[in-house]
Every structure is written in C-alpha cells, then in structure tokens.
Amino acid sequence: MKDGNKGLHMFTWILLVIGGLNWGLIGIFDWNLVEVIFGGFPWLVQVVYVLVGISALFAVAMHSKSCKMCKA
C-alpha cells in the first residue's frame, strides 16, 4: 500500500474497530457508546455512523489489495 493511503487505511481501520465495538456493546448490553459520547449532538452521532459506513465500503473495496492472506 502506498504511503499516501496508509493514513487513510489506519483512519478507516480505527473507525471500523469503533463501529464493531459499539455494535458489540449494543448487542450484549443494549448500550450505545457513540450515543453516550455524542448524544448531545445528534448531527455528530450521524456523522460518526456515516464515517463508519464509508470506512466499511473502503475496507471492502481495498481488501484484495491490502490483505496478506488473500495475496498468498
């Protein structure tokens, strides 16, 4: 992966981890961390969700280029 894409890759990876952990918390405890942190700003909650969704699309699109297991 090119150096220019490394920052974008890390940013999307972090957002996917946040999204995954949030869904785990919702599923297990019915507790939404994103709502707890940004609940006072509904527009910011929506921005976080949109960024997580875009990150998932990016990960799917770039998977075959960055996955070491798929290259093997």
Q: Shape from CA axes? A: elongated
Radius of gyration: 14 Å
Mean pLDDT: 89
Q: Which regions contain 5 or more consecutive residues with pLDDT less than 50?
A: none
Which structural class should the secondary elements be placed in? mainly alpha
- Percentage of residues in strands: under 5%
Sketch the topology as an H/E string, one letter per element: HHHH
Q: How far apart lie the N and C ends?
A: 16 Å
Question: In this structure, how is the largest beta sheet organized?
Answer: none
- The count of β-strands is 0
The domain count comes to 1
Description:
With 72 residues, the chain is mostly helical. The protein has one domain. Helices cover 86% and strands 0% of the residues. The longest helix is centred in the first third of the chain and has 27 residues, at 3-29.
Give a brief outline of the structure.
This protein has 72 residues and is mostly helical. It has helices spanning 3-29, 33-38, 42-66, 68-71. The mean pLDDT is 89.
Search tags:
mainly alpha, 4 helices, 0% strand, 72 residues
